[in-house]
Amino acid sequence: MARCLKSRDLGAPPDTYFYALANSSQAGSTFATIGSDDALRLFDGKLKLQHSVATGHNGVACLAAGNDNSNASFVTGGSDGHLRCWDARTGQAIAQVMADPRGAAGVAAVTCQGPYIAAGTESLKEGLGDVSVLLYDTRQLAGGPVRQYIESHTDTVTQLAFHPTLRNVLLSGSTDGLVSVFDVDWADEDDALQQVVNPRAAVHCAGFLAPDQVYVVSMDEQYSVYTLAKTVEEDEQVPPPRQFGDVREALGCQYVVNVLLQAAGPPLMVHGHTGKRDLSIVSLGSPDAWAFGQTIKLPGAHDEELVRDVILVDQRAYSCGEDGRVKVWSLGT
Description:
By secondary structure, this protein is mainly β. The chain is 3% helix and 50% strand. The chain has helices at residues 189-192, 247-251; strands spanning 3-8, 18-24, 30-35, 39-43, 49-54, 60-65, 74-78, 82-87, 92-98, 107-113, 116-121, 133-137, 147-149, 157-162, 169-174, 179-183, 193-197, 203-210, 213-218, 222-227, 242-246, 255-260, 268-273, 278-283, 285-286, 289-290, 295-297, 307-313, 316-321, 326-330.
């Protein structure tokens, strides 16, 4: 069982929700969270507040850690349609750009790899051409996106993830019920789109469970695993997805927070239950036998409020939620 080491509101006003967490090692081990008051808060591993700044977004929506060699320690996106890059050492915005050059669609998802920022927009209407998956190069941010895929989704992009080893492979998930896998070496969208998987429900979270496998958790908590088509031999067929069904039944939870990948060790699924004040982290096993395994309980969770994000750093879990608090947990025995 985990132990809560610290719990802080980071100076947030009452009734603030915290939406997301990120960790950057560029300025030491610095953490960030965004909240419903449109602020970005930077803090250390012991939850000591370092900077609290207005993001400038009219509705900050997403947060990611930058990992290139510039000063962009964190990136935020908002419903105002802007991306902003932040220097954790100063708490200052060092660059910004209107994400979608076609209009004022808000940014709903963001992720980073090397010098690249991938952004997904929210839907303003139904139909092709409304939602974009965009790729920016921070070395030429003002020049606009280096890739712009506008035909693969018809509703808000909820999830973006780069492949853990193939730096040219980007995944996007959407509330249109589709997960798209792109090879961003191609500018033309028809050439770039490598695979589409259809969980038949709005995508809550998705990513690469293993180098050759994609996971999807839908907004109705259906969990499934798909094989990447490009990892299958030409004379073989892509195997059917593994369908685990509604994880609420299997895990006794109300909702899935996210799925966490570890550098060493199995992937993990984080789930919660507000009525039970429960937050748990369960092992997902291995590619040979994906199965729910050992569980670590985080007692008390965030009281009866939803947990919005959890990240792992050095045998500790950091969580944030709609109670307006960030907590750090020891996972050691």
